[in-house]
UniProtKB/TrEMBL annotation:
Main location: membrane
Cellular compartment(s): Membrane
Record flagged with keyword DNA repair: no
Keywords (A to Z) from UniProt: Membrane, Metal-binding, Transferase, Transmembrane, Transmembrane helix, Ubl conjugation pathway, Zinc, Zinc-finger
Chain segments annotated as transmembrane: 7-25
Signal peptide: none
Pathway the protein contributes to: Protein modification; protein ubiquitination
InterPro entries on file: RING-H2_zinc_finger, Znf_RING, Znf_RING/FYVE/PHD
Protein name: RING-type E3 ubiquitin transferase
Originating organism: Nepenthes gracilis
Amino acid sequence: MRDAYSILAYVLVILLVALWLLFVFCKCCQSPSSSSSPPRWDNISATPRSTSYGLRTSVVETFPKFAYSEAEGRGGAMASECVVCLGTFEENETLRLIPKCGHVFHAQCVDAWLIWHATCPYCRANLLPQPAGLPSHPGVTIWNAIRPRAAA
């Protein structure tokens, strides 16, 4: 009988230690100071974060805008859908062209995307200006294309 109690005591101690380690591990993973933790969906707002790596609005505004025409869109040279919102282009909607790769999106959709990202939403081409000798968007430098970080 004594052996049964000692085995039960060992099992209980091992179980308590395992629960304590699981609790500590979960607390470490939920630490708000952890920079690698993913954002919580209830904290995401429509305004850009100060640490965003998207393009400045002034840079995005240099990308050409035009009205969609079904006659031009059906020729196959241009997509008929916006991959950001997954909506079909309608007659006379304002579209924006990404000069580097030639992809077209609703201006409103791609403008919101580029606040947060410095890549094409379709092909993920890097839209940051390239160093000298590589093709880049005219008149833009890498330093004025990146959104500024907040002072720490």
